[in-house]
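[Q] Does anyone have a clean structure-token version of this?
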Amino acid sequence: MKLTVFGATGGIGREVVRQALDAGHEVTAVVRDPARFTVTGERLEVFRADLTDPEALRGAVAGRHAVLSGLGARNRAVAATGIAARLTRPVLSAMDAEGVRRLLVVSAAPLGPVPPGQGVADRAVLAIVNSVLKDVYADLRVMERELAASATDWTSVRPPKLTNKPVTGRYRTVVGGNPPRGRSLARADVAHAMLAMIDDPSTVKQGVGVAY
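[A] Here you go.
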């Protein structure tokens, strides 16, 4: 497949690019600063662009089978600017202009429903996390509303706490919900899950919880 990856210099984006190349896909990695991008490969195109300009992004998505995005805030201060929603809008516009429909993005588990049977301790931790990271989740909620209003065949992948452990390929997914007692997931396995969902029709126009 021909894939485009936004947020390719981030932890999840880099993993998406690496794993996609290893799987034999052709990958376009969209970056603002190529000097920060160290992944190489024969089937890799590094596309430098202003991420706020839909016209500048059209060449990055034209003719692609799917677009995968790891765009989002890396800290609370950046989240307060609404960066995930703000940078996803030009991607949606570029995809619409080029007739590209499949889009997978990274969101977060707290945007999904609380799983049945979730323990009191887990609920308490979730309440604390929601309070501390409220700006991050508010930004992601706006992004998800705009996905739902778009013409794309979107999937919002919602992991819990992220780690830098190696890929395992062993995790749980719940379409429209969250795995019970799902407390963490490696960025590498988030990337693995996103790539696995590209051709899964059950995930289209859905939030999907993913966790160990």
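[Q] Thanks! Anything notable?
[A] DSSP finds seven helices and ten strands in the chain.
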